[in-house]
Specification:
The chain has 279 residues and is an alpha+beta fold. The protein contains 9 helices and 11 strands. Helix 3 packs antiparallel against helix 4. This is WCX domain-containing protein.
């Protein structure tokens, strides 16, 4: 028995019927071999199609969502990052350059380097890393120890490697490297000995004035005690770059006391900054 249908009469401006049929054609909604405007309206009524303008994102929202995809990729949640990128491309009202950039990321699946790194760490297996640094130079490292660390805004891969030529640190730390996960181009497991840790040094810090009480202990603090009017913290440091960035934020209320090599390196950075602002 044929299904009973209701009749709906619509009054629409000239050309509207043709536009509805064009939409029905694109969505493959047909009556026989012809696009069906009635079928299109029926699909909308049955919530088989969504109707409405794409949501519009302001610059801050786009920046936040892009950052979220980076964090997801760094943490190994590649599938979730792809879902978020697809949402931005399909539902966001984006400007052409940004849309094209996101389309490229969606069409070229992101490599889950975090997952591969975690596997090598769990197996205690050395690996070869192909990496592009901030100057667009391709580097190669033989990693014999690795760990994932979070600095400031993102996750990084820290490794102990055979190569030392490009290191800016002293001999105690010139085997350590800190690599951005999104700049890794390849990882290849190799045979060899796995180390137990990164190289490290002890750095003595004196926190003064308000920081004597306000300082919040860090995971790598080995000692933390008040000596007179200062708080002395002994920190395990594997990469002076991040320590120097931290001390800059504290200003004159934090002093690197020892070792002298790290103190002098910070002094050089302060001197360059001073010279930049000289009249």
């Amino acid at each position: 028995m044929p299904r009973k249908k209701e009749t709906l009469t619509l009054s629409v401006p000239p050309g509207t019927k043709e536009k509805l049929e064009d939409i029905a054609q694109r969505l493959d909604i047909k009556w026989g071999d012809k696009p069906s405007a009635s079928g299109l309206i029926g699909a909308i009524a049955l919530s088989q199609l969504e109707v409405g303008q794409p949501f519009t994102l302001d610059a801050n929202q786009v920046k936040a969502l892009k950052k979220a995809t980076e964090v997801l990729v760094d943490s190994g949640s590649v599938e979730e990052a792809q879902i978020l990128l697809s949402l931005l491309v399909n539902r966001g009202n984006l400007q052409a350059p940004l849309r094209q950039s996101l389309l490229q990321k969606v069409s070229q699946p992101t490599q889950a380097w975090r997952i591969l790194v975690d596997q090598q760490i769990a197996r205690k297996q050395p690996f070869h890393v192909v990496y592009t640094n901030s100057q667009k130079q391709q580097m190669e490292y033989t990693a014999r120890y690795a760990e994932i660390c979070f600095y400031e805004k993102r996750y990084y891969l820290q490794i102990w490697c055979d190569e030392t030529e490009d290191s800016e640190d002293g001999p105690e730390l010139h085997h350590n490297r800190c690599l951005r996960l999104d700049r890794i181009n390849g990882i290849l497991p190799i045979e060899g000995e796995w180390r137990e840790s990164l190289d490290s040094i002890k750095v003595y810090l004196h926190f003064k004035k308000w920081l004597v009480n306000a300082y919040e202990p860090k995971p790598d603090d080995l000692e933390n005690k008040v000596l007179g009017e200062v708080r002395q913290v002994v920190r395990r440091v594997v990469n002076p770059f991040w320590l120097i960035r931290e001390v800059f934020r504290y200003g004159p209320d934090c002093e690197i006391v020892a070792p002298d090599a790290v103190r002098q390196r910070f002094k050089q950075e302060v001197t360059k900054l001073y010279q930049l602002y000289q009249d």
